[in-house]
Amino acid sequence: MEEIQQPKESALSKEAKPQKSAVREIAEAVLVAVALAFLIRYFLFQPFYIPSGSMEPTLKPLDRIIVSKVNYWFSEPALGQIIVFRYPVDPSRDFVKRVIAVGGETVKIRNNQVYVNDRPIPEPYLPPNLRMSDYGPVTVPEGKFFVMGDNRNHSDDSRIWGFVPRDNVIGQAVFLYWPFDRIRTLGGT
To answer: Quick one: DSSP state of residue 140?
Structure first.
């Protein structure tokens, strides 16, 4: 049986390899790190901070969240999920709200209760003693979403400016990472 061996480098070929300087190695490592951070931020996950109290008590001003852009590659936003989207009136601004209804569903509010297709929806995340004005009924067009803040009395949402087009959805809020004592996942209802 013959033994296979790797060819040995000659002393001449070892000397022919240029040595990388420490500066070049650090620059390459930084470049790779920046490229990875760019890919992760723009295609997979993006951090956001909460600027207002429209989602209280679920999210408070200055909370920091992670938004997954991957979650909606193969599925659509669903009832109760918290989404971040480009504001339909001014797409340069990002908003965070909860999905209340999707295309084809009818929304109305009567006596402080939200109904979707004439059925009351459970909303355990709402603050106690919340008062909402009657609204609707309105039918959500296909490819759009009806969204509301959890702090309904102080939320600028679909009741005021209409529906969110699917193309405006950035992703699903999946994780609250700051402040440290409120770290948790952000699921649906």
So the answer is: P
pLDDT, the chain, mean: 90
Structure tokens that stand for 141 in this block: 């067009």
Tokens of 67: 């938004």
pTM, two decimals, is: 0.82
Decide which of 119 and 38 is more confident.
Answer: 119
Give the confidence band of 127 by pLDDT, cuts at 50, 70, 90: confident
Cα end-to-end span (Å), the chain: 67
Q: Note if 17 is an active site residue.
A: no
Q: Annotated catalytic residue: which of 13, 14, 20, 54?
A: 54
Helix (H) or strand (E) holding 64: strand 64-68
DSSP labels for 142-175?
Answer: TTEEEEE-SSGGG---HHHH-PEEGGGEEEEEEE
97 is catalytic: yes
Which is nearest to 46 in space by CA: 64, 63, 66, 62?
66
Q: Looking at the predicted structure, is the pLDDT value of residue 40 above 90?
A: no
User: Is CATH 2.60.40.1180 the classification given to domain 47-185?
Assistant: no
Q: What is the pLDDT of residues 139-172, one digit of tens each?
A: 999 999 999 999 998 899 999 999 999 999 999 9
Catalytic residue among 68, 69, 97, 155: 97
Residue 131's SS3 state is coil
